[in-house]
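Project outcomes to date are best conveyed with an example. Our students and postdoctoral researchers have been running inverse folding experiments weekly, and each run begins with a structure described purely in C-alpha cells. The record below, which covers 426 residues, was selected by the lab manager from last quarter's runs and is presented without edits.
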C-alpha cells in the first residue's frame, strides 16, 4: 500500500505536518527514531512561542561577536575550533546574510511566518491548551543599558506594519508586571512586553497530536529508524525503515540536523548547521511563590520560563558540530544567570532538583526555514527553524501541507523554498 505522505521525524515540525496533512484527508505514516515523539530537539527547549523574537541570529556585526566568543568566558555564543572547518561554507553564507538590508528583509519574512503560525496554532490552543500547559502570558524583555533598549524600540517600530505587538515598560511597570524582578529593578533602564507570546509544553503537544493521529486511523511508528530513501528513477517513493519499506507519494524530512544522515545531498543543499542550545529546569513544585511571566534578559541572552510547576532557564548557542555532550561550564552559567535575574529565589532553587539538557537547533545560513520540495521529486523538507522551532511549527506545517496538496498558500512560499536564491560569496 502506498500512502499519501510519509513523514520522517516526530518532533514539532514532523508531527504538526502529519496532523495538517491528515486534516486535509491525506493518509499519513509518521516514523520517529526515538521511543516516543517530541524527545529530540523539542524535549526541554524554551517552551515559548515567541513571534517577538523573530530575528535571525546573524545580526549586522555578528562577526565581531563570534570572534570575541573565543576569548570571552561569559559569551552567549561558544565555538569549538573543531567545528569551524566542518561548517565553513555555512559560515560564509551566515556572515554574508548579516548585511543590514538582508537581515532586515529576512526579519520581516520571519515575522510574517511567525504571525501566520500563531494564527494556525490558535486551533490547537482552543482545542488542547489545558492538556499541554499552554498560557497566553506574553513575555517581558528586560534591559540594563539604554542604548540596547532604544535599539530594540527602533527595531520594533519598523515592524509595526507587519503586525508586531509590543509595549515599552518603565522599571516600575516591569516590577508591577512581574514582582519577582523587584530585587534587580535598580539595574534596569526599562523593558518591553510582548503580549502575543505564549508558553506551552512542546513534548506534551507532540504526544497529543500523536494520539489524535492514531485515533483518526493514521499510523505512527516510534523506535523506528529510517535507514534509506527508496527511489524510482529520479523520484523518491518512500523509505526503508526498521519496520520495513514504506511507500509514499510524498516523503517529508522533518529531522532537523539529522537529515544529513539520510539524505546528505539534500542536507548539503539546504545549508543547515547544528547549533546546540541549553536549558536548566528546576523542579519548583514545592515553592509557592514563583514568577508568573517568562522573562528574557537582553544582556545575559537567557530566557527564564515558568511552566507547570517548574522554572526553566534557556540560552547559549554552541557551535560544536554534532557533539551532543553537555558542557558543565554552560550549565553552571545558566544557574548563575537564573540567580542574577531572581536573586530572591537563589536559596530556594538551590534546594530544587535540577535537570540540565542540550539539543540541536537546525539553523539555516540566512535565518529562514526550508519548507518545500527538494530537487528530488516527491521529497520535501521542513527544517532550518533555528531558535524558532516551536514558534514556527504550526505555520510551517500548514504551508507545507498546502504545497503538497496543491492548495493556494497564505503567502509567497518561494521565500522559504529549498531552491531559493542566496547572495553570492564574493
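After processing, the design step wrote out the following sequence:
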Amino acid at each position: 500500500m502506498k500512502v499519501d505522505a510519509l513523514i520522517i521525524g516526530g518532533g514539532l515540525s514532523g508531527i504538526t505536518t502529519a496532523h495538517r496533512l491528515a486534516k486535509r484527508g491525506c493518509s499519513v505514516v509518521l516514523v520517529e527514531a526515538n521511543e516516543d515523539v517530541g524527545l529530540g530537539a523539542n524535549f526541554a527547549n524554551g517552551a515559548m512561542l515567541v513571534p517577538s523574537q523573530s530575528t535571525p541570529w546573524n545580526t549586522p556585526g555578528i562577526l565581531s561577536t563570534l570572534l570575541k566568543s573565543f576569548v570571552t568566558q561569559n559569551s552567549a555564543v561558544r565555538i569549538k575550533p573543531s567545528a569551524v572547518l566542518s561548517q565553513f561554507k555555512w559560515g560564509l553564507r551566515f556572515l554574508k546574510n548579516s548585511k543590514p538590508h538582508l537581515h532586515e528583509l529576512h526579519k520581516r519574512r520571519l515575522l510574517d511566518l511567525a504571525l501566520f503560525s500563531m494564527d494556525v496554532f490558535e486551533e490547537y490552543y482552543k482545542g488542547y491548551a489545558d492538556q499541554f500547559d499552554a498560557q497566553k502570558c506574553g513575555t517581558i524583555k528586560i534591559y540594563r543599558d539604554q542604548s540596547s533598549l532604544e535599539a530594540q524600540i527602533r527595531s520594533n517600530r519598523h515592524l509595526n506594519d507587519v503586525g508586531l505587538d509590543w509595549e515599552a515598560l518603565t522599571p516600575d511597570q516591569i516590577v508591577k508586571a512581574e514582582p519577582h524582578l523587584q530585587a534587580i529593578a535598580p539595574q534596569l533602564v526599562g523593558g518591553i512586553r510582548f503580549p502575543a507570546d505564549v508558553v506551552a509544553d512542546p513534548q506534551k503537544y507532540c504526544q497529543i497530536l500523536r494520539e489524535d493521529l492514531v485515533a483518526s486511523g493514521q499510523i505512527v511508528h516510534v523506535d523506528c529508524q529510517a535507514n534509506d530513501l527508496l527511489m524510482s528513477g529520479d523520484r523518491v517513493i518512500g523509505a526503508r525503515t526498521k519496520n520495513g519499506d514504506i511507500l509514499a507519494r510524498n516523503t517529508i524530512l522533518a529531522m532537523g540536523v539529522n537529515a544529513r544522515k539520510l539524505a546528505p545531498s539534500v542536507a548539503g543543499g539546504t545549508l543547515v548547521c547544528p547549533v546546540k542550545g541549553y536549558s536548566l529546569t528546576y523542579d519548583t513544585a514545592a515553592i509557592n511563590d514563583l514568577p508568573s511571566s517568562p522573562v528574557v534578559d537582553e544582556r545575559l541572552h537567557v530566557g527564564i520560563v515558568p511552566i507547570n510547576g517548574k522554572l526553566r532557564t534557556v540560552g547559549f548557542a554552541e557551535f560544536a558540530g554534532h557533539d551532543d555532550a553537555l558542557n558543565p561550564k554552560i550549565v553552571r552559567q545558566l544557574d548563575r544567570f537564573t540567580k542574577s535575574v531572581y536573586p530572591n529565589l537563589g536559596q530556594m532553587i538551590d534546594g530544587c532538583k535540577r535537570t540540565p539538557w542540550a539539543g540541536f537547533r537546525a539553523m539555516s545560513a540566512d535565518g529562514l526555514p526550508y519548507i518545500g520540495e527538494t530537487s528530488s521529486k516527491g521529497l520535501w523538507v521542513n527544517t532550518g527553524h533555528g531558535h524558532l522551532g516551536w514558534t514556527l511549527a504550526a505555520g510551517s506545517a500548514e504551508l507545507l501541507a498546502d504545497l503538497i496538496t496543491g492548495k493556494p498558500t497564505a503567502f509567497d512560499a518561494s521565500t522559504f523554498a529549498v531552491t531559493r536564491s542566496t547572495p553570492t560569496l564574493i
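The mean pLDDT is 93. The chain has 13 helices and 19 strands. The training component of this project remains on track.
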